[in-house]
From TrEMBL:
Coiled coil start-end: none
InterPro entries: Metallo-B-lactamas, NDM-1-like, RibonucZ/Hydroxyglut_hydro, ST1585_MBL-fold
Name this protein carries in UniProt: MBL fold metallo-hydrolase
Species lineage: Archaea, Methanobacteriati, Methanobacteriota, Stenosarchaea group, Halobacteria
Residue ranges of domain Metallo-beta-lactamase in the record: 20-214
CDD domains: ST1585-like_MBL-fold
Stretch forming the signal peptide: none
Length: 291
């Protein structure tokens, strides 16, 4: 467990044994929220880390339905008898068993060879609360304000902690890993214009740090935050242009993926399958957006 601000700490779920890929966060007021859950397959690690600190969350708060953020929701809510807090559009997909199943199936199809490590999900049986845009979760002495942001997914909110001026960006501001900002444009709902608008809206928070689920805190002041958001504008725009250009040239989605992988420079210690499947997903997301 690693502290990133007063009353906010982070646990690395070590997805695929990779450090610095996926995080969950503990936010403490008089009550405690677990923001993000990680995959179902890494929940034991999260539980062990919480146990080590004697932390028992009152709320489980996945920012959106993608299984790297919400996969362990049902399991952890059971474990801690915690209230699940989510975006209104995410509710049924966390609660209704058939919808949970359809969510898991669609993720399985999308992630290809990563289906096993991505795991599954379990429907939530206890209390569920939804947060509208601008609504807050009161932890006692600290509030988390939800903001609906739909460029990455239609069932996503970000969370703002006024106390430490920390903005949990979910996946709306990209992935900040090993000091590099990467695009995330998964199928089926990625939308470039909405995501670019989001960056302007995110800049209006008075944040001095961004907190990325992938991975960790970045920034120490408004200028850093503005810069990080502007950087993502370029990363995302270049990415969509690149996929479009390569597709025009090659005319085949798999070839676009191969081409991008051949030229990409990913850190050596990254899981090759994970890199390939992630690039494939992000290409697919752009192709659906463009079509
Ligand atoms: Zn996501």
């Amino acid at each position: 467990m690693h502290q990133i601000a007063d009353g906010i700490s982070m646990v690395d779920t070590r997805f695929l044994e990779h450090e610095g890929h996926t995080a969950v966060f503990i936010v403490e007021g008089r009550e405690t929220a677990l923001v993000e859950t990680g995959h179902s397959t890494t929940r034991e690690r999260v539980k062990n880390e919480l146990a080590r600190e004697g932390t028992v969350p009152d709320y489980i708060v996945p920012t959106h339905l993608h299984l790297d953020h919400a996969g362990a929701t049902g399991y952890l809510a059971d474990e801690y008898d915690a209230t699940v807090v989510c975006h209104p559009s995410a509710r049924d997909y966390l609660v209704e068993p058939e919808k949970v199943e359809s969510l898991v199936e669609s993720v399985r199809r999308a992630v290809g060879e990563l289906a096993e490590p991505y795991g599954d999900a379990k429907s939530v049986e206890g209390e569920v609360r939804t947060l509208d845009d601008g609504e807050t979760l009161d932890l006692g002495g600290r509030e988390l304000e939800a903001g609906h942001f739909h460029g990455h997914a239609p069932h996503q909110f970000v969370l703002y902690d006024d106390e430490t001026r920390s903005l949990f960006t979910a996946d709306e501001a990209g992935m900040w890993m090993d000091g590099t900002l990467y695009q995330t444009s998964p199928p089926p709902n990625f939308d470039l214009e909405t995501n670019l608008d989001s960056l302007d809206r995110l800049a209006r928070y008075d944040a001095k740090r961004l907190v990325y689920t992938h991975f960790g805190a970045r920034g120490d002041g408004e200028d850093d935050v503005r810069e990080a958001l502007e950087e993502y504008r370029d990363v995302l725009t270049d990415w969509v242009d690149r996929v479009e250009t390569e597709y025009d040239r090659l005319g085949d989605e798999e070839e676009v993926v191969d081409e991008i992988l051949a030229e990409a420079e990913f850190p050596d210690d990254w899981d090759e399958t994970a890199v390939r499947e992630t690039v494939r997903m992000d290409v697919r997301g752009v192709m659906i957006y463009l079509s």
